[in-house]
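Service request form, structural biology core

Requester: graduate student, group of Dr. S.
Request type: structure prediction, single chain
Budget code: on file
Notes: please return the result as structure tokens.

Sequence provided:
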Amino acid sequence: MIRKVFRLGMVAGLAGLGAFSITHAAELRAVRLAADTNSAEVTLDLSGGAPQKLFTLAHPDRVVLDLPNTRLATGVRAPAASGVVTGVRFGTQPRGTLRVVVQLRSALPAHSTWGSGDAGRELVLTLGQPVVAVAVAAPQVIAARHAPGDGDRDVIIAVDAGHGGVDPGAIGRGGTREKDVTLAIARALAERLDAEPGMRAVLTRDRDEFLELRDRIRRARLAHADMFVSVHADSIADRSVTGASVYVLSVHGASSEAARWLAERENAADLVGGVRLDDKGALAPVLLDAAQSEIIGVSASAAERVVSALAGVGEVRKAQVQQAGFVVLKSPDIPSMLVETAYISNPAEERRLRQPTQQSRLADAIAAGVHTFFVLNPPDGTRFKQERRSTLASAAGTTASATP
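Core staff response, request fulfilled:
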């Protein structure tokens, strides 16, 4: 459903491009931001005019601008968050399209206008003002089927205990099996999430059973999950290696050789259960469309919160979110992350992983990171969204009353 709606928006955006003919790539040379709590203006300094596709997305709220045949100039930095804008980021799309994403605290109407700059053109995105007629496609808002504009539903998190059944996962020197550790942590994580007002957890497995990687995704989608968190315990030949790490799906290969190796090992879990390589394309490459690229960006933002929370529990192996081609993260419409809680191959970490107290601490940290993400990026139709609106309205009222 989500991909269908997204593509319709893309087709609408392409309808107005016939009048343009670009032979040389334009260059984005600078980005400026002026914002307050209710509106924003983003100015893009380009070396020349270009066609554009402007649309909005929900979950979280953001405005997306695609500039075909455009590249980012060397040294260009995204402006710092300000007012209603929580971040600006750039990305490269197929066929030389530069994508600019403006992430918002709440949904705003958007339109763009062209002006003249120094030896180039300025494209001004106005967010939060009444929309006027401009020569761009009408914005398309994507919202999950279970998330109406208003409501107080719970945010749903699919908690996935890695491995299971005939697939024990990694096994520590002391005989600890990854599938047992992940199930214990997953259960503790689900308990923590259920204890948070406005959140509800769904376990992909709550017993020692084998699940195909695609079946894990299917169960999350059937539950209408807003996020998918897969819990694992890493293993490596070097038993001295320790620490947690968090992964999201990669579009252009792994972020490191270690990440690539780990993804290959985790993806091979289906083979342990007798799934052939050609069964339902279980391990076949997945063509990532623009919608999934956006989902990966959301996943990375959430994963950053979990990494920060895990740092308070113990050593973090990688301070940055890692990327690799994990099959279990290839949902096209659910932000997903894979958490390697520790190295079960390390004797000390193996002992800690068996302890209920450590399992609880890890679950608490993951839950805290997920909770923080949804507080800052509440989906439409949720209790988090209602509370966010109330907080912003209260802050605006306090400011207004304090003004002489």
